[in-house]
Amino acid sequence: xxxxxxxxxxxxxxxxxxxxxxxxxxxxxxxxxxxxxxxxxxxxxxxxxxxxxxxxxxxxxxxxxxxxxxxxxxxxxxxxxxxxxxxxxxxxxxxxxxxxxxxxxxxxxxxxxxxxxxxxxxxxxxxxxxxxxxxxxxxxxxxxxxxxxxxxxxxxxxxxxxxxxxxxxxxxxxxxxxxxxxxxxxxxxxxxxxxxxxxxxxxxxxxxxxxxxxxxxxxxxxxxxxxxxxxxxxxxxxxxxxxxxxxxxxxxxxxxxxxxxxxxxxxxxxxxxxxxxxxxxxxxxxxxxxxxxxxxxxxxxxxxxxxxxxxxxxxxxxxxxxxxxxxxxxxxxxxxxxxxxxxxxxxxxxxxxxxxxxxxxxxxxxxxxxxxxxxxxxxxxxxxxxxxxxxxxxxxxxxxxxxxxxxxxxxxxxxxxxxxxxxxxxxxxxxxxxxxxxxxxxxxxxxx
Length: 448
What we know:
CATH architecture of the largest domain: 4-Layer Sandwich
Helix content: 25-40%
Largest sheet: 7 strands, antiparallel
CATH class of the largest domain: Alpha Beta
Low-confidence stretches: 1-20, 288-340
Order of helices and strands: EEEHHEEEEEHHEEHHHEEHHEEEHEH
CATH superfamily of the largest domain: PPM-type phosphatase domain
Number of helices: 11
């Protein structure tokens, strides 16, 4: 198995298609639940024979469900049998297709925001696993996660693009502290149609018997790896997916919860042959919504419906209906917010306050200058000036304060030069002392 330690944009070394190993396929299950707190499900997920993906919408009032549903509608087009590589290494082809799909989803979100400014600030995470029967490529942006369970041991495949993950990487906080950090939901990368998503793209070597988990942070944010591994290793993919959601909500998750579980089985295994692709969460609801969505959650429905639905065969250019829901409670994801009421009044008030402080500062500076004195020349006489011995365009920094009876031409050439340049004295008393000294040093008229 190859796991990226840092952001990766090139494939990691992988053993491509070992000759001794037959083709593999996936036996999968997917479930998404709105949870106990949220009014709407902003998670979207898709599971098919060649593709698994989880997208967690960000934006609250800016409709993160639209972003996640749109991303999945674009990414799911990758779910098709692999074609001959045509001279391209199989791993390279997987990563190229993943990168292309992520950027197409990013561009589609940009188009939606351009068409409807009410969506400004919407974005989504994206964690994608693309399978070709032998190798697995992963594409990742945000804080949804992919895990691998092998021989009872769980490993996290993806690296969170979050503020707290940076603190963990720097050794400033622990993983346990990151789970309760006040800024644990601050995402540094997402598909938002505005900033370059710069996805992590890498290959993972998989083996017969491996089990994969893709999930939103509604699960990984409350369940530690050890518990995730115990639940993931129990029963069929259907059972494990349901139990992961149940455990997440029982552990106090306040977010939507989406889990996709897939077993890597032999191509000759008949069990998964009857599986249909599954579309879950906002991606399954948005195309058919004509009014407000009243999905209440896995453990609040009488029939305990898991929310799994067969994929709807939508046209490639389908537009999502965007109902006029009230403002959502999801404000913790740190997406840009729409302008607040009285925005201009607030700005005017702030500007007025800043201007007031500016005038106070200028008044204080002027008062200080009027406490400064120096000795210079005015109309041929030694004069005491009040202010600063400096010049500025338009503004006068000093003025004559007291003219003495000491003519400049009665001073020695040295003293006269000092007076013309200005003799700094700071206080009035010192200025008067300087004048007295100059008067005592006058040259007698007879000597001139």
